[in-house]
Amino acid sequence: MNKSQTPSFEDLIRELSTYDLSVGELALALREMVLEEAPASVEKLFRVYALVFWYSLTGRMSDAFVQVVVYPKGVNLMFNRGAELQDPNGVLVGDGKIIRHIKVRRPEDLKNPHLRKFIRAALKHAKSIEKEKKLAGRSTEPAARASAKRRAAK
Fold first, then answer.
1. Greatest CA separation found in the chain?
2. C-alpha to C-alpha distance for 53 and 31, rounded to whole angstroms
């Protein structure tokens, strides 16, 4: 599975079939939640040590704001810039410089209101980053960058 692939439903089911059914159901439920909260996002799928569904506004992995990461025993809802999100109740897990996540291990965990709250917060944060890039004159569009390079080379 290549990181730039937009998954078909068949791709999703094929990739999830290697996991326990309950884990696959958690992953699909989180995927649906992300798509409901961020319907304009671009979804991509790839496999590394885990199966990862990532979402961005630009289609570039470097701009991903949330990921559904599937492990054999559960799923994490990962926020690529989670350390930059407001988290006064300490809901987000992780102590790295940037990434944070929420663990989802049982169907009951899907009722956690923090899941949608942080998806919306991550989306809002991603939009503000894209806006800042545009204001700074750094286009987020690959074609615009290629065009700018061609003009600079003349």
1. 59
2. 8
* Matching residue, tokens 């800042």: 132
Ramachandran region of residue 74, left (φ > 0), alpha (ψ -120 to 50) or beta?
left
Q: How much helix, strand and coil, in percent to the nearest 5, is found in the chain?
A: 45, 20, 35
**27: Cβ–Cβ under 8 A, 6 or more apart, which residues?**
16, 19, 51, 53, 68, 70, 75
Asked if 43 and 15 touch (Cβ cutoff 8 Å), the reply is: no
- pTM over cut 0.90: no
The per-residue pLDDT for range 30-87, each reduced to its tens digit, is: 999 999 999 999 999 999 899 999 999 999 999 999 999 999 999 999 999 999 999 9
The crossing angle, in degrees rounded to 10, of helices 21-37 and 9-16 is 140
CA-CA distance, 114 to 15, in Å (whole number)? Answer: 27
Domain residue spans in the chain?
9-153
Which residues fall within 8 angstroms of residue 96, CB to CB, at 6 or more apart? 83
